[in-house]
Input
Amino acid sequence: MSAPEPSAGELAGRRVLFVLYYYAPYASGLSIYIRNLAEHLAGLGARVGVLAGDHTSGLPPEEWIGGVQVRRVRSLTSIGKGMVMPGFVPRAIAAARHADIVIPVMPMLESALICRAVPVRKLLPVYVCDLRLDGRLGGIVEGLAARSARSAIRRSGRFVALSLEYAQASRVVGDLAGA
Output
């Protein structure tokens, strides 16, 4: 059973913040899914913001894309697809203070830290996929990201996944996905 879609009246003026590593113009399944969702919510009257990493040099630190305000945090370097952004967590926490709904998009290593600093009533984590990385360091990062996701979900008491079937099959959040 799925919940009914919120109406434009329910979202009008609500401030929604997505927090994730990659956003447009970056194109992946995760970033395209979140972009579509963010623009849809903006179309329903929500004031939607995104805090993401500066994944490509030359991107503006702030811009509007499809009715969504996008702010980027400078990345010092990257390790695989992960970015090293010392300012990411403090900026996410500061932006969350001005939001009605905060949507950390996982996998994200910092999701637990961000969720601990945000009131539970504001949190709605989105779990997109299990992280799969190669090598010993990759395994360590995978484990840390999984622990962070589980902590974020437990704190919020709820989460959104691409589908119930995917969530139940996830090695990270499967046991947290109730029917």
